[in-house]
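User: Once you have settled down, look closely at the record that follows, taking as long as you need, and be ready to discuss the fold:
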Amino acid sequence: MSTPETPATGWLKSSFSQGEDINCVEANLAADAVYVRHSRHRLDAVIRFPHPQWDVFTRGVKAGEFDPGNH
C-alpha cells in the first residue's frame, strides 16, 4: 500500500536483514524525506524522517548511542 506520502517503489532492504532474521528493515531515500518500514509487514506503519532528523539518527547509530547498555 502506498499513499501520496509513502513511496510505492525505491525501497532498499538493510544488508543486516538477511536469512530468517525477524528484524527486517527497508528504507526509501526519497527527495522529501527518508521512509522506514518493516520488510515483512509492508502494509503496516511507515515512519517518515525529514532528512536532517535521519542524519542525526544515523550518526547516533554509528556512534553506538542505541547499543544495549548505553542507556
Observations:
- Residues 7 and 28 are 7 Å apart (CA to CA).
- The longest strand covers residues 25-29.
- The two ends are 35 Å apart (CA to CA).
- Residues 12-62 form one domain.
